[in-house]
Here is the input.
Amino acid sequence: MYPTLCKSFSTLVSALLISLLLSACQPRQPDDLLTISGPFEAVSLAPSKSGYVYTRMQILETLINTNDAGELLPGLAQSWEIGDQNRRWTLHLRPQVTFHNGAPLTADTVAHSLQTALGHPGPLLEAGIDSIRAVDPDTVVIQLQQPYLPFTAVLAHYSTAILAPESYADNGDVVELYGTGPYQLTEYTPPHKVKVSRFDEYWGTPAIIAHAEYLTGHRSESRALMVKSGEADIVYNLDPASVDLLKKSDHVQIDSTLIPRSILIKVNNAHPFLNDLKTRKALSLAIDRQGIAANILGAPGTAASQFFGPTMHHWHLAGLPEPVQDLEQAKTLLAEAGWKQSEDGTLIRNGQPFQLRMITYANRPELMLVATAIQAQWAELGIRLDVSMENASAIPSGHADGSLQLALIARNFANIPDPLGTILADFSTAAGGDWGPMNWNNAKAFSLLSAMKTEADANVLAQQRRLLSALLAEDLPMIPVSFYVQQSAVAKRVNGFHFDPFERSFRIAEMNLANL
Here is the structure.
């Protein structure tokens, strides 16, 4: 009942907002300009901070690419070899690649860009790099201190994008954005606007659309309005209510893509209410995942009882049973953990009520609706959950200072195309990760991950993946809720739209605009 009411109310609010804001006439977009809107902000020119915007806008490129299946492909490196017992990567660069300022791509420029990236936060720091050097004009050698299995995939991460030397100030700060992509930056108005134009000297297949712009739209309803009114051609990260409304539009198409991202509850495993498995299992059993998936997310079949969805087939456990809400079993587990109901139904232990705070954020607009549903479902156990929407930065901040109790997040396990890179960063130590576990200590998992860093035998690695996936599903350092369906809306004048499940590129260069 609750999820249905929540969805109906949200749909009504969205409908009223759009009805109030829509004007009588619809602006026509220029025939040579593609306008995109999403919730993300380009707060800096630095790839370590906002590189995901610049790779999506196809300004910046990486040495390694990936296809929709997560297979690694040549990027700016046309080939590579791995030697010295998986500690040395030799990368051979594409010939005749030009930066947007006219400078050539050389091994020296690649080495300089990667060395600069090492001075900023990013997955390169996890790899234990010993040296990066140009051995000839077209060859870069990267030496690691020890084997690191996902290193090739790390070179596909946006923070490793290659910039021309002239992009940097003497102190390493990025002051100009000279990349090698099919589009070059022409306007940067932080944090809300990035505009690009076609780069005619691009080394690959030339783009068709002459100009494109990215506009930050903080609310899902606002982005829905933009595409419905003709102010935008493509909008990303829509909530279910906006999707329902846009499905009625004659000039907008909805694209729904299951991606390697999961909705999870981040748990402070050191909190006295959350530090035992029985309690975490009880909280998990109390969630009506099927109702949330169908009635709130509008994505039946995505309820999750494990961390990794079916798009991550190497990590997904196909044989696990579908998750089912079981309030009676949840109550039994809570009683075994020492919780008793007071006269008003609130759970009490040692004189303390079971009260927790969950935060979430607006970039993924469905999260607040899901958090509110979980709040109601846990209330049936006698748990008081206070839910609030914060800036996304509150989650890593709360992780760092220990103040975070619970957070509902949509974790992208494919920021690095091989999920092992993200999993190693998140799950290898009790410190956890900003978007991973918090204060979780499991020696078996840590030992398993340490072995996976260096395991070269594919059969052994496959078994290790299955063991780790099962261990996480059982020990619940975080609580899985749903696998993630990306909802986008595309104007019908756009041809060739295809969502990148790894969220590395908007693929503008593959599209064209029809004169409708």
